[in-house]
Protein: Protein nucleotidyltransferase YdiU
Organism: Celeribacter baekdonensis B30
Amino acid sequence: MVQFDNSYARLPERFYTKIAPEEVPAPEMVLFNAELAAQLGASDWDASVFAGNVIPDGADPLAQVYAGHQFGGWSPRLGDGRAVLLGEAVTEHGRFDIHLKGAGRTPYSRNGDGRAWIGPVLREFIVSEFMHAAGVPTTRALAAVRTGARVQRERALPGAILTRVAASHIRVGTFQYFTAQEDVEAVSVLADHVRARHFPEAKGTLGLYEAILAAQARLIAKWMGLGFVHGVMNTDNMAVSGETIDYGPCAFIDGYSPKAVYSSIDRQGRYAYEQQPSIAHWNLAQLGSCLVPLMEVELGSQAQAIDALSEVLNRFPMLYQAEWRRVFGAKIGLADAAEDDVPLVQDLLALMAQDGADFTNVFRGLSDGTARDWLLDREAFDRWSERWEARRSADFAAHMARANPAVIPRTHRIEQAIEASLAGDDSLALRLVRVLSTPFDLAEADRDLIQPPAEDEVVAQTFCGT
C-alpha cells in the first residue's frame, strides 16, 4: 500500500488547484513497472488507478501552477495542463511524486484537451526507464494505460495515460511564476520547500542555488555523454531537483553531429545538442533572478544580492566542464581525465562528426575493438588511436564498461513500436523496455537493436504530442 504524505498539497493554495483526474471509459494496462511499483507500495494498483478512475486512499490530487520561457518567449501562466499530481509516496528510498500525465483538463489547459495519445506515452516510458538504467537522474515510468477513448491530433488516435514518478515536479518555471506575480513570500516558501525536500545540507538561499547548479551540471554532462537531445529545454521543463523531466520531442543521436536537432518545433536550433549546456546556464540565470529578493533580505542590499548570485552562476561553465571531462574521460577509459585530455576527446568527436559516425557504436566499440569499423576515415582513427593507447588507463575497459551502453532507445525503433501499438501489437514496446533495462549487457539475440536506422528508417523530426 502506498504511504502518502502530501507536502506540496500543504503549501499555500495559490501553488496549485485541487482537481481530480477525468474518468476514462475503458482503462487497459499496456506497460507496468513491477519493480518500481514494489518500491512505492503500488503493486496492487490496477489500470483503473493508473487511468485516474479510482483515487487511492491518502492521495490528494492537484494540478501545479508554473510559468516559463518557451523557446525564449515568456509565458506568464502555464501549469499542469494535462496532468494531475496524485500525491507523494514516502518509502525507504525517499519521497516521490506520483503523477498522471494525460489525465484530462485542468484550469491550466489553455484550451487543450488535457489528454495524451499512446505514442508520446510509450516514448516517455521507454526513454525514461533507459535513462534510469544508464545512471541518469530522471523521472521514471510506473505504468502506461490506454484509456479506451480517442484523442484528436492530426487524426484520431488512441488515448493513453502515463504514470510518472519523480523526486518532485518543481521547475525553474515554478519560481518564475511567483516572481512574475511579485509574490516574494511564495518564492521564499518555495525555496524552503525545495531545500528541505532536495538539498537539506544547503545553507541559505545561496547554498540552495549552488546545489541546484551543481545538480544541473551533472545532469547535462550525462545527457551529452549519451548523445541525448532533450528538444524542449524551456524553463518549465527544468526540474530544480536535477532530474530529466518532460520527454517530448527528444531523441538520441545516431550519426554524430554537434548541431543535431530533432524537435519539429525547434526551427532555429535553440536546443541543439551542442547548445544544451549554454541553455542550462541561461535557464539557471532566470532562476537566479527569482532568488534576488531572498538574497537581498539575507545580505541587506540588492546590489550585494545580485553580485553573490552572479558569482555562483558564473561558476556553472567550470562545474559543467569538470563533469563533462569526467563523463567523457570514462567513455574513453580514463580514470582521472584532466584538462590536457580534453583535446583527445574533442578530436575523436570531430572525426565522428566528419564521418557522421554512429555516436553510441563508436564509443562502445572502443572497448571491444570495433570502433574503427564505424568510421570512414580509418587512417585518421588509427592516428587518434595511437594517442589514445598512450594515455588510457591500464584497466581502461573496466572504466568504459559502465560509461558506454551497448544499446540506446533508437528513435526509429521507438517509432516502429508506436506504429505496432497503433495496430494492436505491443510486443516491440515490451521488448524495448526489457532490453533497455540493462543497456550495458546485451544478449546476442538482441544485437539487431544496436543498428542505426537504414536510409528508409531515418526519423528526422520528433513531436511533443500535445
